[in-house]
C-alpha cells in the first residue's frame, strides 16, 4: 500500500505545517524525474501482479474463524527465507494495512513472451504454498476480498477490544487498533485521516433486506458518544474505521510501457475497463457480519479513507480550506492523460492552480500538468521527521507521499530516480479471487487486453462522467448480470496519434446502432455484450482476444492455459459461472443456521471460510464458481 519510511511519524498538526513543503519539493522531484526520463523509449513490456492475503485461524472447537494478527511476524519469516538470502527468489512479500494481511508479488516481473502467461499461476501457487508453510497448524491464508465478520466482536486472534474513547488511531467502536499493521505508517495514516477530516470516517453500506431483516434496520451502538448514531443511516451497515476499507484485499496489475506516451495511452484506455472488470470480479458482499446489497469493496474503501473536511465536501462554505473536492482520495480517476482523451475530460477537475502553472512553465503539457496539479490538492497524510529534508535530485519521497495516497482506479507511475525502470501504469479496481486459477485468469485477461489495445490501436474512450456512472453501477448487487454500462460502440476508430496506421479490424463485424442515438459513440451494454459480444451491437473483448491469439505464435500448452482463463472470464460474463459475491450469497442463503435476517453468524462464517479454504487449496472443486479447469498446480 505504498511508500514505507522508517523513523518517527509526525502528528497531524506538524504534518499539516509541512504540507506545502512536501508539495513544493514533491513537484521539484517530479520535474527532475520527468526531465531526465521523458524521452525514454523502447523500454520493453514488463508486468507483474500483486495479490493481497488474509491470515486466518481456525478454531474447530468453537467453530469460529478469526483473523490472526501475525502479519509482521509471518512477513519477516517469509522475507528471511526468501529475498534476504536469494536475490532471485521467485516471490516477494510486503506488508499491507491489516496486521492480519500480507501482500505477495512475483520475484521478477514477467516479460513480453507469450509463454510467461503460463507461469503466472505457478508463481501464485508458490506464493500460497510458501506462506502456508510458515503458518501454524491451526492457521491458513486466504485470498478473500472482504472478511465477512470484519469488525464483529472477537473477530481477531488474539481477541482485542476496540478503544473508541481512549487515544487510539481509529477510535472505532468495532475495529481495534491492534488489527492495524504495527508499522507506524498505517496507524499514522489512520489517525491523520481522522484528524484532518475532523471526525471519524463514515461508511454506510445498504443492507440486503431479506425476509426477516428488521425494517427499518436500525442498530444501537453501545459505547458511542453520539457521533456514530448521528452518522449511521437507517437500512445501512454502518462502519467507522479505515480498517473496514483498507483491511480488504485486492488484485492489482502493473505494466511498464515502452514510453511515456504509451503509458498515458494505456492509462486512459484501461480506465474505461475498470468498472467492467470490477463487476466481473465482484467478491465482497458481506460487511461487519451482515449481508449487504453491494458486491464490491470499492465504495467502502473510498469512504474509509475520506479525509475531506466538511468544507471540502461542500457541506459548509469554504473558510479554512482551499478547495471544494468532489471525491475521496480513493476513487476513480478524474482526467484522461492522452491527447485522444482530452475531449472526453468532462468532469470538473479541481487543481492547485499554482502548481499547475509551475508545471506548465517548466514545459509540462496541459494534460499531464493538470493530472499532477489535481493529485497535489491533497495534503500529505504521513510524514517522518527524518524524511523532511531530501535531496530532490536523487530522491522522490515527497512526490511519492502524495502520489501513493491518491488511490485511484488507475495509477500513472513515473520511474523512480536513478533506476532502469520505465514509465508504468497500475490497474487497481479488481477484487481478489478465491483461487490462483481465477486470479491468474483475471490478470492474464487484463495483460492480454493491453497487448490487443496496443497491437490493434483500440480506442475505448467515452466521456469520463460515463465511466464514473459505470463505477456506481458496477458495485451493485449482481451488476455483472443486471447492470448496464456505457461502452464505446466502435473501438477501431480512434483518434489518438499513437493510433496512426491502425491495423485492420480483426473480424469484419460491422457495428450498428443499438437503438440509441446513432450520433453517440457509446451506448449502454451488458457485461455479457462487452465481454462476449452481441451481433450487430459490439464485437466483444473475448472474440477480439481470440482473434489476436489465433494470429500469435504460442506453444500448445500456453495456448491451452490462456484459453482456459478466457473461458472463465467469458462464463462469468454470461452468467454460466457465478462471481464470488454471488456464490457466497448463495452459500449463506442455504446455510441451515441462516435465519433470512441478513446476519452472518460465527458458525456460518466458519463453514463458508472452511469451504473457501478447501477450494483454494484444490482439495475440493467448485464447478458453479470456476467450472472444471485442469489445475496447473499438480
Ligand atoms: N487493499 C486495497 C484495495 O483493496 C489496495 C491497497 C493498495 O493500494 O495496495 O484496493
Ligand atoms: Mg497492496
Polypeptide structure, described:
This protein is an alpha+beta fold. It has a domain at 156-246. Helix content is 36%, strand content 12%. The strands form 5 sheets. Strands 1, 2, 3, 4, 5, 6, 9, 14 and 15 form a 9-stranded mixed sheet that branches. Strands 7-8 form a two-stranded antiparallel ribbon. A hairpin with a 5-residue loop joins strand 3 (91-95) and strand 4. Helix 8 runs parallel beside helix 14. Residues 497-516 have low confidence and may be disordered. Bound molecules: glutamic acid and magnesium ion (MG). Glutamic acid binds at residues 1, 52, 246, 248-250, 297, 301, 407. The site of magnesium ion has 5 residues, from strand 1.
Amino acid at each position: 500500500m505504498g511508500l514505507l519510511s522508517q523513523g518517527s511519524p509526525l502528528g497531524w498538526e506538524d504534518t499539516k505545517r509541512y504540507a506545502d513543503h512536501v508539495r513544493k519539493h514533491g513537484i521539484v522531484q517530479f520535474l527532475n524525474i520527468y526531465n531526465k526520463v521523458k524521452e525514454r523509449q523502447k523500454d520493453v513490456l514488463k508486468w507483474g501482479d500483486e495479490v493481497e492475503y488474509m491470515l486466518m485461524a481456525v478454531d474447530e472447537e468453537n467453530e469460529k474463524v478469526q483473523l490472526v494478527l501475525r502479519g509482521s511476524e509471518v512477513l519477516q519469516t517469509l522475507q528471511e527465507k526468501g529475498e534476504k538470502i536469494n536475490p532471485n527468489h521467485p516471490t516477494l512479500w510486503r506488508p499491507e494495512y491489516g496486521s492480519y494481511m500480507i501482500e505477495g508479488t512475483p520475484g521478477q516481473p514477467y516479460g513480453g513472451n507469450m509463454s510467461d502467461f503460463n507461469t503466472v499461476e505457478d508463481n501464485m501457487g508458490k506464493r500460497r504454498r510458501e506462506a502456508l508453510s510458515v503458518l501454524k497448524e491451526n492457521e491458513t491464508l486466504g485470498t478473500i476480498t472482504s472478511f465477512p465478520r470484519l469488525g464483529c466482536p472477537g473477530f481477531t486472534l488474539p481477541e482485542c477490544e476496540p478503544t473508541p474513547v481512549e487515544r487510539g488511531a481509529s477510535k472505532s467502536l468495532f475495529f481495534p487498533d491492534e488489527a492495524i499493521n504495527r508499522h507506524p505508517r498505517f496507524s499514522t495514516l489512520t489517525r491523520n485521516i481522522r484528524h484532518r477530516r475532523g471526525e471519524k470516517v463514515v461508511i454506510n453500506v445498504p443492507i440486503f433486506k431479506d425476509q426477516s431483516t428488521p425494517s427499518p434496520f436500525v442498530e444501537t451502538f453501545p459505547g458511542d458518544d453520539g457521533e456514530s448514531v448521528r452518522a449511521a443511516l437507517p437500512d445501512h451497515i454502518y462502519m467507522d474505521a479505515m480498517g473496514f476499507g483498507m483491511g480488504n484485499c485486492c488484485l492489482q496489475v502493473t505494466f511498464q510501457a515502452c514510453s511515456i506516451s504509451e503509458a498515458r495511452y494505456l492509462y486512459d484506455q484501461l480506465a474505461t475497463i475498470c468498472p467492467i472488470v470490477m463487476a466481473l470480479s465482484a467478491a465482497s458482499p458481506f460487511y461487519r457480519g451482515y449481508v449487504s446489497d453491494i458486491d464490491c469493496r470499492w465504495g467502502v474503501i473510498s469512504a474509509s479513507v475520506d479525509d475531506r473536511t466538511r468544507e471540502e465536501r461542500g457541506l459548509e462554505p469554504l473558510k479554512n480550506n482551499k478547495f471544494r473536492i468532489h471525491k475521496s482520495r480513493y476513487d476513480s480517476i478524474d482526467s484522461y492523460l492522452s491527447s485522444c482523451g482530452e475531449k472526453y475530460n468532462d468532469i470538473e477537475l479541481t487543481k492547485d492552480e499554482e502548481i499547475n502553472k509551475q508545471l506548465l512553465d517548466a514545459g509540462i503539457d496541459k494534460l499531464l500538468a493538470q493530472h499532477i496539479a489535481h493529485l497535489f490538492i491533497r495534503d500529505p497524510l504521513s510524514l517522518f521527521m527524518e524524511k523532511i529534508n531530501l535531496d530532490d535530485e536523487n530522491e522522490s519521497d515527497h512526490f511519492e507521499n502524495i502520489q501513493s495516497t491518491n488511490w485511484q482506479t488507475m495509477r500513472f507511475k513515473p520511474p523512480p530516480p536513478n533506476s532502469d525502470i520505465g514509465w508504468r501504469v497500475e490497474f487497481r479496481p479488481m477484487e481478489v479471487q478465491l483461487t490462483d486459477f481465477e486470479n491468474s485468469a483475471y490478470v492474464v485477461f487484463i495483460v492480454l487486453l493491453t497487448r490487443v489495445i496496443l497491437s490493434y490501436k483500440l480506442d475505448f474512450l467515452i466521456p469520463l462522467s460515463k465511466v464514473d456512472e459505470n463505477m456506481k453501477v458496477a458495485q451493485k448487487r449482481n451488476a455483472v448480470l443486471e447492470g448496464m454500462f456505457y461502452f464505446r460502440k466502435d473501438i477501431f476508430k480512434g483518434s489518438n496519434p499513437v493510433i496512426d496506421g491502425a491495423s485492420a479490424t480483426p473480424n469484419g463485424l460491422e457495428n450498428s446502432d443499438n437503438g440509441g442515438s446513432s450520433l453517440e459513440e457509446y451506448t449502454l451494454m451488458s457485461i455479457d455484450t462487452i465481454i462476449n459480444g452481441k451481433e450487430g451491437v459490439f464485437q466483444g473483448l473475448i472474440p477480439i482476444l481470440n482473434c489476436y491469439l489465433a494470429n500469435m505464435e504460442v506453444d500448445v500448452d500456453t495456448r491451452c492455459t490462456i484459453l482456459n482463463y478466457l473461458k472463465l472470464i467469458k462464463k462469468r460474463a454470461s452468467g454460466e459461472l457465478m462471481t464470488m459475491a454471488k456464490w457466497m450469497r448463495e452459500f449463506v442463503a442455504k446455510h441451515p443456521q441462516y435465519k433470512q435476517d441478513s446476519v452472518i453468524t460465527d458458525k456460518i462464517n466458519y463453514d463458508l471460510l472452511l469451504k473457501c479454504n478447501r477450494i483454494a487449496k484444490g482439495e475440493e472443486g467448485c464447478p458453479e464458481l470456476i467450472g472444471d479447469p485442469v489445475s496447473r498446480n499438480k
